[in-house]
Design a protein that fits this description.
about 110 residues; about 80% helix; elongated
Length: about 110
């Protein structure tokens, strides 16, 4: 299920503009009510123990956001280069090879 969600997110990022994709992966300064409640609620013993024993979730989130930002920038650069120069010669050759194989397979199915 997580793979499907990830692929859906990637598809969404590939369709939207570069600015919109960057806006999706950049953290915002807004907080919701549950985050505010967590900040102002007194800690209990379990939360203190969990905080001491586990790595910072904020650090992991920042790393994931940084990776997402890099992925969006890389996708934008590749897309821009493709629009400027067209498909690579090797890519065109590979597409022709795939088409040739598919034609051969469809002929063998219709002849069988």
């Amino acid at each position: 299920m997580q793979i499907a969600a990830f692929l859906s997110d990637l598809k969404s990022l590939s369709i939207c503009s570069h600015e919109a994709a960057i806006a999706l992966v950049k953290p915002t300064a807004t907080t919701n009510a549950s985050e505010i409640d967590q900040v102002f609620s007194p800690p209990n013993d379990a939360s203190i123990t969990n905080t001491i024993n586990t790595p910072s979730a904020a650090g992991e989130t920042d790393f994931e956001l940084q990776r997402a930002d890099e992925l969006v920038s890389l996708h934008y650069d590749v897309k821009l280069k493709y629009l400027e120069t067209g498909p690579d010669a090797e890519l065109e050759k590979a597409a022709e090879d795939v088409e040739k194989v598919l034609r051969g397979l469809s002929r063998s199915k219709s002849g069988a």
